[in-house]
Amino acid sequence: MASTLRHPATLLWLLLAGATILSWFLSGHSASNHALATVSVILIALAKIRLIIWYFMEIRHAPAMWRWIFDGWLAVVGIALIALYLALR
Amino acid sequence: MAEATSPQAERKAHLPGEAGIWLFILGDMIIFGMFFVAFIYYRAQAPALFDASQARLNADLAVVNTLLLLTSSLFVVLAVEAVRRNLVARARRLLMAAWLCGAGFVVIKIVEYREKSAQGINLLTDDFFMYYYMYTGIHLVHVLLGLAFLAWLIAKCRTATAADTPSFEVGASFWHMVDLLWIMLFPLLYLVK
Q1: Which of A76, A79, B14, B169 has the most crowded CB, counting CB atoms within 10 A?
Q2: Which pLDDT value is given to residue A16?
Q3: Taking a C-beta distance cutoff of 8 angstroms, is the pair B5, A48 a contact?
Q4: Other CB atoms closer than 10 Å to residue B174's CB: what's the count?
Q5: Nearest by CB: A13 against B41, B70, B193
Q6: What does each C-alpha distance from B72 to A5, A70, B46, B138, B163 come to in angstroms?
Q7: Which tops the pLDDT comparison, B8 or A71?
Q8: What does the mean pLDDT of chain B come to?
Q9: Backbone angle region of A53, left / alpha / beta, with phi > 0 → left and psi within -120 to 50 → alpha
Q10: Are A7 and A53 spatial neighbours (Cβ–Cβ below 8 Å)?
Q11: Got the DSSP string for B56-76?
Q12: CA quadruple A4, A5, A8, A11: dihedral positive or negative?
């Protein structure tokens, strides 16, 4: 039990849960600057997804091709979301 | 199996499970990637309507659901590690905990759908709710498939050994994908303003 609590995956889970709460807070307290809050929550989501792919899905140990494919997905989706959001507002 | 759990950086490259599941995961992620981008594009065509409809959602339930999927993923990570160490009884308990968190997600999603239905909201209410129901509905189908996969692995634990690790890795990888797709659906549908 103690080893589970100190497990790297458990610490990562704490970070992911904390980031979720932070996104919620940012979105609820963004009366003055919606764009900053929105870009922040999208970036936080991308960072969370990268951590899940890298550590939970163990892609950090996968052949280089797969690491590039997933980072490529993150880059394309991230840039498209943020660029479209900012350009069309 | 020592090399698979060693912290050394120069270990042999290893893709969990088998290549087939990764092609499936990649295909699903590309489709959802297009869903995400389409949502941001169509939101920009009617931002006032999207903001007004978003305000009718219950973000608290979505936060709880995000935490449930993250917790479920943690249990699955620990379960795969247990199978690798041939601790299948421990893996079984962890997978059951993961399954319960996933089932909790489904229950909360149903509560949310019923809440919307009671407010007279449905797929045809407006564009925002069309995307909301389409995206969360397709995602929910993935959750149900993942739960069926986890249930199969729980049953498999009765006879499994460390040699069955690839099956567990396939199920785990699919489940983590279900988690990560929700990680982007949550801010897009509930938080983006």
Answers
A1: B169
A2: 98
A3: no
A4: 22
A5: B70
A6: 15, 22, 36, 19, 24
A7: A71
A8: 94
A9: alpha
A10: no
A11: TS-HHHHHHHHHHHHHHHHHH
A12: positive
Maximal CA-CA distance, chain A = 50
Q: pLDDT for B14-35, tens place per residue?
A: 999 999 999 999 999 999 999 9
Nearest of B26, B54, B50 to residue B38 by alpha carbon: B50
Chain B residues near residue A61 by CB distance under 8 angstroms: 11, 13-14
Give the ipTM: 0.95
Task: Give residue B51's Cα distance to chain centre.
Answer: 25
Which 35-64 residues of chain A touch chain B by CB within 8 A? 37-38, 41-42, 44-46, 48-49, 52-53, 55-58, 61-64
Q: Pull the structure tokens for residue A62.
A: 């996968």
CB contact under 8 A, A27 and B73: no
Which is nearest to B53 in space by CA: B159, B124, B138? B124
Low-confidence residues of chain A, pLDDT below 50?
Answer: none
* Pairs of residues, one from chain A and one from chain B, whose beta carbons lie less than 8 Å apart: 123
Please give the pLDDT value at position A5: 78
Question: Which of B33, B66, B193 comes nearest A27 by C-beta?
Answer: B193
